[in-house]
Design a protein that fits this description.
6-stranded antiparallel β-sheet; 11% strand; 563 residues; single chain
């Protein structure tokens, strides 16, 4: 079965609204203050405080509030983080083992060559960052999003975390090429953390150069936004810039080192904390710090958990388990593979699409191990029971989502079998995931009953070659008859709202990357536009073949973890 999307979106928020512990990714104050003129500092702080006070008085109801047309008084703050969480006392930026802290201060390293703005998300700028799109045309914006300069209030931080890679404890990982610029509180009262990726070396860079290349940055920018418009929780991408700085990469780890171009993505999320943020503290026995970080995360991102409650860590774990099951079920419902497909770095196929739920269980088990030093015997037992319930939570949500994709209403015995039967046929015939469900949304029941599959439904025609397809169709049509107060037109209308026509498939991104490497960013912009409306038919998308069978050249397409 061909997944509908094969992109690495290294950090994905595991719940729709509040808890923001990032489950995946296994992908100096004094100096700064001395650089700010006292008069400007006071003025900027006053404007920021008045703005916040005004927003609070209005209850953040003015969605049509005036957007900032410049960055002159647009500010970030790191105080919420460093006032509570300890910072590495070593200020020099060199690779080292870091202990007893959450962050290290490290400034981005500007590119040596001229930087070009490749893409920008209008929605992120306007709806999240309160910036008018015209700001993206200014030198100040490009300097900010490329790491050349920082805005007032920013204390660039790099996060210390650990984790597992391919199932093996990798010890200290950390932000090896990312810089947390600070927190922005927008006019709706939401807090968003801004992070540059590919912005230079940090204490956590290990043997890396701190850079990201254009090909992986294009993929991340497009996939982040594509996932958002599919309604799936994700970090967002505000901008993408590229330089002419040389970055050397062995893409397939075969000794073939090639020169590529450095790029930076400005990413935003409610938080960049992850399971590894807790694992590293538990691993080194920094339990007071583990408790402080957990309480901070709960206080900031899990409002339904009482931070004074003795069982707060169990309550926190319960929510993360539930939302992890929800998130991975959502991934599966659109054929999204968290890691690249096919990934030449994953010889054991550990992160293949069908194994994602199991990897979720693995990650949750590691989270529980990190929490255990803070739990008493009874709490450990309760948390273990919660973890045991993960498969049921996942399968329940998975079934709900796929029933909607098939237009099934109500509860009927055998729904799970009907779904599994179809997925089996898709796998055996190597059918296109996205277009199979989309074409089931468009074909009529009479066409299905007659097994008369029109040529334009090419994905269904592929499945129809399987000898068991007529049996599945019979079961499906029989099940549709049990839908109460439903019609075929209503079924099709309903299904087209949950089955996208366009997703970011690997070959589409690769095509955009190849053009981008020749300084042609037209397909990046085209994909960005189309993926904002994945359920609607676009003439430009049809012309580009985005709902057609993949081109022949894509059959041997390979990608890797190299970025």
């Amino acid at each position: 079965m061909t997944p509908g999307s094969g992109f690495s979106s290294c950090c994905l928020t595991p719940r729709l609204q509040t808890p923001q512990l990032l489950l995946w990714c296994v992908t100096c104050h004094a100096v700064l203050c001395s650089l700010v003129q006292p008069g400007l500092e006071g003025r900027a702080r006053l404007v920021h405080l008045l703005s916040n006070r005004s927003n609070q008085e209005q209850g953040y109801c003015e969605t049509e509030a005036r957007l900032d047309s410049s960055l002159d008084f647009w500010t970030l703050s790191s105080e919420n983080l460093i006032a509570v969480l300890p910072v590495d006392p070593v200020k020099e930026n060199y690779v080292r083992k870091v202990k007893n802290c959450i962050f290290s201060i490290a400034f981005p390293t500007p590119f040596k060559s001229r930087v070009h703005l490749v893409a920008v998300s209008k929605e992120v700028l306007e709806d999240i960052l309160d910036l008018d799109l015209s700001v993206s045309e200014t030198d100040a914006f490009i300097q900010l999003v490329s790491g050349e300069k920082i805005v007032f209030g920013s204390i660039p931080l790099t996060h210390r975390y650990g984790g597992h890679q391919f199932g093996i404890w990798a010890d200290q990982l950390g932000d090896g090429r990312a810089h947390l610029l600070g927190i922005y509180r927008n006019r709706q009262g939401e807090k968003w953390e801004l992070q540059l990726k590919g912005s230079g070396k940090t204490p956590y860079s290990r043997n890396g150069d701190g850079r990201a290349v254009l090909r992986s940055s294009v993929r991340e920018f497009l996939c982040s936004e594509a996932m958002h418009y599919l309604g799936i929780p994700t970090s967002r991408a505000a901008s993408l810039v590229v330089s002419d700085d040389e970055v050397w990469r062995d893409q397939f780890y075969n000794g073939n080192i090639v020169k590529e171009r450095g790029a930076v993505v400005l990413r935003v999320a409610k938080s960049w904390f992850r399971i590894g943020s807790l694992e590293i503290l538990a691993h080194y026995g920094e339990l007071d710090l583990l408790r402080s970080l957990l309480d901070f995360i709960i206080q900031e991102h899990f409002p339904s958990v009482n931070v004074q409650e003795p069982n707060r860590y169990v309550d926190f774990f319960s929510i993360v388990v539930s939302e992890t099951a929800q998130l991975i079920a959502l991934w599966m419902s659109v054929g999204f593979a968290h890691d690249f497909v096919p990934n030449t770095s994953d010889d054991e196929r550990r992160y293949k699409i069908g194994n994602q739920a199991n990897i979720g269980m693995f990650n949750l088990n590691k989270l529980l191990q990190a929490l255990n030093p803070l739990l008493d015997r009874g709490q450990k037992h309760l948390a273990a029971q919660i973890l045991e319930g993960y498969p049921v939570l996942y399968y329940t949500r998975f079934t709900e989502l796929f029933k909607a994709k098939l237009g099934l209403l109500g509860e009927r015995k055998g729904d799970g079998d009907l779904i599994a039967f179809l997925l089996h046929l898709m796998e055996k015939t190597e059918a296109d995931f996205t277009m199979t469900f989309r074409q089931l949304s468009e074909i009529t029941q009479s066409q299905l009953q007659e097994l008369n599959i029109p040529q334009q439904f090419w994905a269904l025609k592929m499945i129809s070659k399987h000898q068991l397809f007529p049996a599945w169709v019979s079961q499906y049509l029989l099940r549709l008859k049990s839908n109460i107060n439903d019609s075929d037109s209503e079924r099709r209308k309903r299904m087209t709202t949950v089955n996208p026509k366009y997703v970011l498939k690997n070959w589409m991104a690769e095509s955009a990357v190849q053009k981008a490497e020749r300084n042609d960013f037209s397909e990046v912009h085209l994909l960005q536009q189309i993926l904002q409306h994945p359920f609607q038919k676009h003439s430009a998308a049809e012309k580009a073949g985005y709902s057609s069978p993949p081109p022949a050249w894509a059959e041997g397409l390979r990608v890797s973890c190299s970025s």
